[in-house]
Amino acid sequence: MALLDETAKGVYVIAVTPFTETGALDLDSTDRMVDFYLEKGATGLTVLGMMGEAPKLTADESRIFVRRVLKRVDGRVPVVAGVSASGFAAMRELSDSVMGDGAAGVMVAPPSTLRTDDQILSYYAMAAETLGPKTPFVLQDFPLVTQVQITPAVILKIVAAHPSCVMLKHEDWPGLAKISALRAASDQGGRRISILVGNGGMFLPEELSRGADGAMTGFAYPEMMVDVWKAHAAGQVERAHDLFDAYLPLARYEQQPGLGLALRKYTLAKRGAIASATLRKPGGALSKMDIADIERLIARQERRLKEIG
Prior knowledge:
The chain is 49% helix and 11% strand. The protein has 12 helices and 8 strands. The chain has helices at 27-39, 59-73, 88-101, 117-131, 143-146, 152-161, 176-187, 204-210, 222-233, 237-254, 260-270, 288-308; strands at 10-14, 44-47, 79-82, 105-108, 137-141, 165-170, 194-197, 214-215. Helix 1 (27-39) crosses helix 2 (59-73). GO terms for molecular function: 4-hydroxy-tetrahydrodipicolinate synthase activity. This is Dihydrodipicolinate synthetase.
């Protein structure tokens, strides 16, 4: 598999981590999940992300899971692995493992302890050194979770200083102006990197219009992001918005803090992508009313998709 680079585009689905009813890794469901994402048109996969319950896995489980995903993908699409860690030794160990097994790149989020621009720049300099120049990495910018605010100017300095930084996972909210600023800088001669957006695709049509290259996020209907991206790339902007609007009520519902992953796993299990909706503890649990809401939203979504064709 070729390494990740600045030309990456499309939809890199943030994969869930399937568990059995007892909370053990479900590797058979891992195969089913990979097949499901690829059948829905994913151009890449990202594993061990924040919505992949990575902190709940042991180091050995992380390696086993990534290895299984890579084996099932079999080089058909790039696979990115999250390697964020509290220390650089653990980051290097996991990165060396996944890259050795065939990952296309890794993703690094900043620790919540960073407060100043200088601290952020220093951290990513050390991260780039730790990973090595031959390991491309994704800078994950998710201030709603990390509590680290990274300005466009700081991102541009990281990109200029470290050629191995090839992608920004953009999850700032609101963040449309940030995409515009980064694209304006590359239009004026700065190095252009890939920008894939997160937040469940909640602002995907607008982000694509600002210059994003696609999405790197999860949603129980990944084909929404794929179809929106394809329509937008073909110049069918209104069609992209119509498709997005049909899925928006369910996408919005799935974005609930603390409950979103349980909702996503329930729907993925309903669709046959995984055998069980189990979250490893601690994790949210759905009520009968939550499930009724999902079922209603799915029914309305299906009707709307039939109407627009």
